[in-house]
């Protein structure tokens, strides 16, 4: 059952979760996360090729969740967060 | 003749029943675990079977499971209507089940019976038509039970959900798979510590702490210039962990900080790391069980801790002062979480703070002072005279801002009881303490000129234009004796008074403001 709470603010900002601000260029390290669904790696291999070709200065780190049926383990999420500036997740079908 | 609330309810099979339905109606609220309701169920069923042709018989039950059990237990033909949301029970404002209403074709109330008095029911039933009832088998009188709609926890939800609910704040639905505590962190509502979820029920309960209108705008709060309504302040008070009776203190404090004199915008925005200190005086201290004795400035007392926190959360959420946004403190300070304490007036031989500031001793008052440092201990276990002790205070207060910064700030001195006793023995009152502090801190202007040790103080170029008498003029630490605020708090043991150092004082900074607290 969902919980209802009342907004404590002056309500000038929408309540929806705000997405992180997007930047216009990719620098630093990029995580490619395979959620372990079949052929996700094919998509991510191709993305890695394109990223390396078009943004040659960046570093690409590959990760995989143990299973697509469960959230990523805490340790994996923390590692991705600490080692990367961006993440691309091969999400679902 | 009053009009009864209209309703649309379903029976267990999903069939809808509307009131008023164009015929005379009998409405009886019941719940399964009420013995009196069980006594009258066969009677209600007989009414339905005998008079159902020309009389609407509505029997709203207060739990869905209870309706199933009542139907089975009494082999009922009359449909029991599902009022498990209790919205209809609430709208009818019933305290007791069974409560029986007779209404005309337009839905106007003709008769109301509460509980079961056999003769009353018999008279009513016989006025409606021929019903086969063994009245002698029924008890003469039964009181009934409390309606679920007046159960304290449930009634708060019902008040929050009712059409005339006093709540207007945006409702945020936190999804079932989401954790409400994490959600509130993510939304930026928190000061970094967990918050109590401000559910409508809790906010309704909190609003019970004041008689002020829920939508009254207590103040317009910078930097967003957000409307600080009683409701919005109550929401933040819930999140801080307050009890409803604390709310009037927080409302008065919000009024105080949003004045031009207090200047909460500057207090939050300064890189110096200023924050409000709340001092509470008057009878409200005992009413709220506030701490003014051992550890009064520390942790462990709910009222002290949560009232101060509620004010800070209101500033953050309603005013929009976020660290990194308009809150620009270089270091910050832990008083930004909460800082509220009560004065131990009964241990104070002088006038308490609020009386000095023009209020009656019987008034409850909140005074807000702006601090940038402290409480800085003034450790003196040796002085045995008032002059020595106040002298020690002065030496310790040299460090406010910087030893060479005079006329720059003010101070709130919290005198501990053992130090009070030393002053009292020597006949030292507040006037004498202030004068002594000013006396021992007075320095000739020439000592306050920038030099190789520190560039703080009068600039050399300015000093070069001063005549000898001006350079010899003595400047005390504080521009006015009134910039030394004195209160009493702390335990009876220990010769350790404390001082909060102020922020920029006067019109360019923040001036302490007091507000009377509403008596509820």
Strand order within the widest beta sheet of chain A: 3-2-4
Biggest sheet overview of chain B: 7 strands, mixed
Q: What portion of residues of chain B is helical?
A: 25-40%
- Count the DSSP helices of chain A: 2
Query: In this structure, how is the largest beta sheet of chain A organized?
Result: 3 strands, parallel
The N- and C-terminal alpha carbons of chain B lie at a distance of 35 Å
Q: What is the total tally of β strands of chain B?
A: 23
Oligomeric organization of the protein chains: heterodimer
What's a quick, concise take on this entry?
The complex is a heterodimer of chains A (93) and B (520). With 93 residues, chain A is an alpha/beta fold.
How would you characterize this protein structure?
The complex is a heterodimer of chains A (93) and B (520). Chain A is an alpha/beta fold and 93 residues long. Chain A has a domain of 62 residues. Helix content of chain A is 27%, strand content 23%. Chain A contains two helices and four strands. In chain A, strands 3-2-4 form a three-stranded parallel beta sheet, with helices on both faces. Chain A is extended. The mean pLDDT of chain A is 88. By secondary structure, chain B is α+β, with helices and mostly antiparallel strands. In chain B, the strands form seven sheets. In chain B, strands 15, 16, 17, 18, 21, 22 and 23 form a seven-stranded mixed beta sheet that branches. Chain B is built from 18 helices and 23 strands. Chain B folds into two domains: 155 residues, Glutaredoxin, CATH 3.40.30; 303 residues, no CATH class. Chain B is elongated, with a radius of gyration of 33 Å. Strand 1 of chain A pairs antiparallel with strand 12 of chain B, so a sheet runs across the interface.
